[in-house]
Specification:
Elements lengths: L2 H8 L6 E5 L4 E5 L1 H6 L20 H16 L5 E8 L5 E13 L3 E10 L1 H34 L3 E6 L4 E4 L1 H6 L4 H5 L14 H14 L1 E10 L5 E10 L4 E8 L1 H54 L4 H27 L8 E4 H7 L1 H8 L3 E6 L6 E4 L1 H17 L5 E10 L9 E8 L6 H4 L19 H11 L3 E6 L5 E8 L22 E5 L3 H13 L3 E5 L2 H10 L6 E5 L7 H11 L4 E6 L3 H6 L2 H4 L3 E3 L4 H13 L15
Parallel strand pairs: 12-14, 18-19, 18-20, 20-21, 21-22
Antiparallel strand pairs: 1-2, 1-5, 3-4, 4-5, 6-7, 6-10, 8-9, 9-10, 11-13, 14-15, 15-17, 16-17
């Protein structure tokens, strides 16, 4: 093959062209464009005469063998392949070669390769591929981070089709309802399956909005947990392409529990406010009622004493006295339930208290009821008012008896519990259990309300259990109830243990000195109370100066020609407080003895300064015996040294 002929045919082409002899793979011709592409000059120093594979990279040789030879062998002409070529200066160029075979009479079989330099395009493709790879890695990392955040969060994330088929779900959502991601993704469970029937319409409505508007506003619904309980949730969803949507699910269980606790607290607050209001009312009623009962009790007893031979009069007086006593007990219950009764707490053995009133309790509940007493072997010490403890036991026993009209069993037990904290006190538990009719939840929730009763009209005051509640809390304890209709009731009282203190015996009554004809100043704003008290005291041999208010009492005291031995004053009166009256009188006569009386509550007397004055007090309603005894005790006591007190203003 003549070089002149090739130059004439191929030299003018702008595309690089090279001719290779097949017999020894040597390049026999390269046009100027090809020489320039490989940065070599024409002639012996160029690529002509060099082996074809000398300018190929290993990957180019492999590509040539696997692509070109295979194409030519299969008859595909021309053959096209991509290769990397090494320039004379060592640089690598990327080329796309189109190979066409033909036979030359002198050289034999030849391959003509038309070469297209695609280095710039290849570099762009590599850069684009690298960029795509980086984007894919960034996307994978982003998805990984999103999955980690999604799974670690508390918000459920669900990717699904608009029809509701789950594509993906995060761990938070899976755990929310007790299933695994695999169960959702494998279609073993669906959100439709765990949606209660009554919530299906809400779900369908949200899907309709999703299809038409592209989003569904937040809505509430419930799901069924794997364990069967209902899980309230807030759901919102939005489409992110034509067929898929993403939903966010928030578990509202904790919020619902918080709201229920808040409602319960509000109800307790309303109940406490109601009890406080009723307590204040009870205190006012008790004051007026105690004044009336003082008159009735005293008059009935004096009537009995003055008609010793008239049996009918004595019997009528006894009826009046008994009715007044019942009224006094009712007043006491009013004060107890509102925690306004003056308590005289001391350390006592609860077991001993139970044994002391055992016979009385058995008679109280009747012979048709089995009465069981199960006391802790060791002493069970608490600090409480003994009378209050007896009232608690009697009220609970009567309540149990009334729940068993056809008979049954009442069991009262005591036992000790360890302290709640290492440094705390042990606890005393008293339980009263009956086998009666029990209560429904509506009744159980109201049993400690004042004046609430399930008994028919005229059979109950509704103060028994509210009184128990007040006494227990006054002693620093708690009371709870377990009950079920037809399955009986158990009241459980828990009190702090008084282990470190000795049981205090009830004080023996002091002997009352004999009458010495003392002069008393009686100050009482209620006329009937004042009249009956004066009659009792004068009947006992005292000289009585009577005053309707503190101002009149001060005037009588100053004008009296006989020294006053004792002032008997009501605590709360108009114009001046009874305690302030005693202080002013003692400014004139420091040795003056005093006795206060009151039908008001402990809080009222405390506000008036009675406790600070530290004089004996007679609680209304009084009887002739209690009045005379308190007066003698007050006369027998020495006057204690006084400290300075601020003056109280006139009422």
């Amino acid at each position: 093959m003549a070089t002149v002929r090739l130059d004439l045919a191929l030299g003018a082409l702008s595309l690089p062209v090279a001719v290779m002899r097949v017999s020894d793979w040597v390049i026999v011709y390269a046009n100027p464009a090809c020489e320039r592409m490989y940065a070599a000059s024409a002639g012996p120093t160029g690529i002509v005469g060099r082996p074809f594979f000398a300018s190929q990279t290993p990957s180019g040789i492999e590509n040539f063998q696997s692509v070109v030879l295979e194409q030519l062998a299969s008859g595909r002409v021309p053959a096209v392949y991509d290769a990397e070529r090494i320039r004379k200066d060592g640089a690598v160029v990327f080329v796309r070669v189109t190979v066409t075979p033909f036979d030359d009479p002198m050289e034999g079989p030849l391959w003509v390769g038309v070469i297209d330099d695609v280095t710039a395009r290849k570099r762009d493709e590599l850069a684009l591929a690298e960029m795509n790879q980086r984007l894919e890695e960034a996307l994978a990392n982003s998805e990984k981070r999103f999955r980690a955040i999604s799974d670690a969060g508390v918000v459920g994330v669900v990717v699904s089709s608009v029809a509701g088929e789950v594509v993906d779900v995060n761990e938070a959502c899976a755990k929310m309802f007790g299933y695994s991601r695999e169960e959702y993704l494998s279609r073993r469970v669906s959100f439709t399956q765990i949606t209660p029937d009554e919530w299906i319409p809400v779900t369908l409505e949200s899907r309709q909005k999703l299809a038409t508007k592209g989003y569904a506003e937040p809505f509430r619904k419930e799901f069924t947990h794997r364990d069967g309980r209902r899980v309230p949730a807030l759901v919102t969803a939005v489409k992110f392409d034509d067929v898929h949507s993403i939903a966010l699910v928030v578990d509202l269980s904790e919020q619902q529990r918080t709201q229920q606790a808040l409602r319960a607290t509000e109800e307790q607050l309303r109940q406490a406010q109601k009890m406080e209001a009723v307590g204040r009312l009870a205190g006012g009623v008790a004051h007026d009622f105690n004044n009336l009962l003082s008159v009735v009790l005293s008059a009935a007893q004096m009537l009995q004493e003055e008609a010793p031979h008239d049996q009918q009069v004595r019997a009528d007086a006894q009826l009046i006295y008994d009715a007044a006593r019942r009224g006094a007990n009712l007043t006491k219950q009013l004060l107890l339930f509102s925690r306004q009764e003056v308590a005289e707490a001391r350390v006592l053995d609860l077991n001993q208290s139970l044994r002391t009133i055992d016979d009385m309790l058995r008679r109280l509940v009747g012979e048709d009821i089995d009465f069981e007493l199960d006391c802790e072997n060791a002493p069970v010490r608490v600090k409480a008012d003994p009378g209050h403890v007896e009232q608690v036991l009697m009220n609970l026993a009567v309540n149990a008896r009334d729940a068993m009209p056809a008979g049954g069993t009442i069991r009262i037990a005591t036992h000790l519990l360890p302290p709640r904290v290492p440094s705390g006190r042990r606890r005393v538990v008293l339980t009263v259990t009956d086998t009666g009719s029990g209560m429904d939840e509506a009744t159980r929730s109201r049993i400690f309300e004042p004046f609430f009763t399930t008994k028919e009209k005229g059979k109950g005051t509704g103060l028994g259990l509210s009184t128990v509640f007040g006494i227990v809390h006054e002693a620093g304890g708690t009371i709870s109830v377990e009950t079920r209709l037809g399955a009986g009731t158990t009241f459980t009282i828990e009190l702090p243990c008084a282990d470190e203190e000795k049981v205090e015996e009830a004080p023996e009554p002091e002997s009352v000195p004999k009458l010495a004809g003392e002069t008393l100043l009686l100050v009482e704003d209620e006329q009937q109370v004042r009249r009956v008290a004066r009659r009792i005291l004068e009947g006992a041999g005292y000289r009585v100066l009577e005053a309707a208010d503190p101002v009149e009492a001060l005037s009588l005291f100053e004008r009296s020609t006989t020294p006053v031995d004792l002032v008997l004053a009501d605590v709360v009166m108009p114009k001046m407080n009874g305690v302030e009256l005693i202080r002013r009188l003692r400014d004139q006569a420091p040795a003056l003895r005093a006795l206060c009386m009151s039908g008001y509550t402990e809080d009222e007397t405390a506000r008036s300064g009675l406790q600070e004055l530290r004089v004996p007090m007679l609680q209304k309603p009084f009887t002739p015996e209690s009045l005379k005894r308190k007066v003698r005790e007050a006369l027998a006591q020495p006057v204690r040294a006084r400290t300075a007190h601020p003056r109280l203003p006139f009422a």
